């Protein structure tokens, strides 16, 4: 969420919405893999789980560092350097490498399945519902950040806002590293 807010502030609403699509596709990927039973394999394999966990942490730290370093660049320069496709891909990678999403589909969603239900169809429906709700929340964050953008990016405030969001992203990476360890 911090990534999407930062994207909306630094690159604008349209760019951030591309990021939202990427995050939604990442969530959808987790839902599909869960419906196919692959999420359980990832959760049961310490090697795969740890590789994904640390890749996610590293990618979030990379985004935080990039935001910190780019805090002095103009918004126009930043917009010119990343296409909507690149921003979508970053959103996708950010979410696909998020072990919290994996664990949600492995630990929480199966609790809603019954012996009588068609597990694959039910997982697909629950996954679609989750992706829809999460995407609505992400869009709201992007739109709010876009509305606040003129005020937040005024003068020196811009530098501090971008750095604060970079610190939040780094903090989220640290939280992810410690809260998802086994």
Topology pattern, helix = H, strand = E: HHHHHHHHH
Q: What is the subunit organization of this protein?
A: single chain
Q: Mean of residue pLDDT?
A: 83
Distance between the termini: 24 Å
User: What is the number of E strands?
Assistant: 0
Q: Please give the domain count.
A: 1
Mass-distribution shape:
globular
Global Rg: 17 Å
> What is the count of DSSP helices, taking H or I runs of 4+ residues?
9
Task: Describe this entry's structure for a reader.
By secondary structure, the chain is an all-alpha fold. The protein has one domain (2-179). The protein contains 9 helices and no strands. The model is unreliable at 74-80 (pLDDT under 50).
Annotation keywords:
mainly alpha; globular
List the helices and strands and how they pair.
Blueprint: H1 2-11, H2 13-35, H3 38-44, H4 46-69, H5 75-81, H6 84-96, H7 99-108, H8 119-152, H9 157-179
In short:
The protein has helices spanning 2-11, 13-35, 38-44, 46-69, 75-81, 84-96, 99-108, 119-152, 157-179. With 182 residues, the protein is an all-alpha fold.
């Amino acid at each position: 969420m911090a990534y999407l807010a930062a994207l909306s502030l630094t690159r604008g609403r349209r760019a951030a919405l591309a990021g939202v699509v990427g995050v939604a596709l990442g969530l959808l990927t987790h839902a599909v893999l869960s419906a196919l039973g692959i999420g359980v394999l990832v959760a049961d394999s310490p090697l795969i789980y740890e590789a994904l966990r640390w890749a996610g942490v590293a990618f979030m730290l990379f985004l935080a560092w990039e935001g910190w370093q780019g805090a002095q660049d103009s918004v126009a320069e930043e917009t010119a350097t990343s296409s909507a496709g690149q921003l979508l891909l970053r959103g996708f990678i950010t979410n696909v490498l998020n072990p919290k999403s994996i664990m949600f589909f492995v630990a929480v969603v199966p609790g809603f399945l019954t012996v009588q239900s068609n597990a694959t169809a039910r997982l697909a429906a629950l996954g679609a519902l989750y992706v829809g709700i999460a995407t609505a929340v992400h869009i709201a964050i992007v739109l709010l950040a876009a509305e606040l953008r003129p005020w937040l990016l005024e003068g020196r405030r811009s530098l501090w806002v971008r750095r604060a969001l970079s610190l939040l992203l780094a903090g989220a990476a640290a939280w992810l590293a410690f809260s998802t360890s086994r």
